[in-house]
Amino acid sequence: MTSNKSIIEIIFNTHHVVSEKVIMLRAIVKRYSAENLLENTESILNFFNKILVEHFKKEDELIKVIRRDIKLTDIESKIISEISEEHTIFLKDFSRLTEIAGNLKPELKEDFIEICNNVTDKLTIHAEKEDNVIYRIGKEQLNRQQLDEIEDAISKIA
Ligand SMILES: [Fe+2]
Ligand SMILES: [Fe+2]
Prior knowledge:
Elements: H1 7-31, H2 34-38, H3 41-69, H4 74-102, H5 106-141, H6 144-155
Helix pairs in contact: 1-3, 1-5, 3-4, 3-6, 4-5
The structure holds fe (ii) ion (2 copies).
């Protein structure tokens, strides 16, 4: 494969854009009244279930190659395990939010707000870990062949 732009830069651009959006959403969750947030469940869920889920799949391909091929320090290894586990936990959070939004009983409204609040806090920390570990390693230590492998795997997603 012969792209001009590194696949890491492409995933990182999306990572940057979604991280900015999470920061905005986090501010909205903390500032808005419950009713305002609940009027926008569809766009919030669209962002989580489509954009973030796809982004996680791409990052998982990057993580797979880093774990297999790069000699990691104990701390890097630990953080990468956390990042990977967090992707799984976020998917469960998104499913729960989707379930609640599909049947928004009055007693569940507070749950929706609470989970959104919690998810956007966790996503902010998650993105910082990724900046410092998987993107740094991806940019500095992967060779052409490894990048091509990631690009190929990602082209099969979505
Ligand atoms: Fe990310
Ligand atoms: Fe991620």
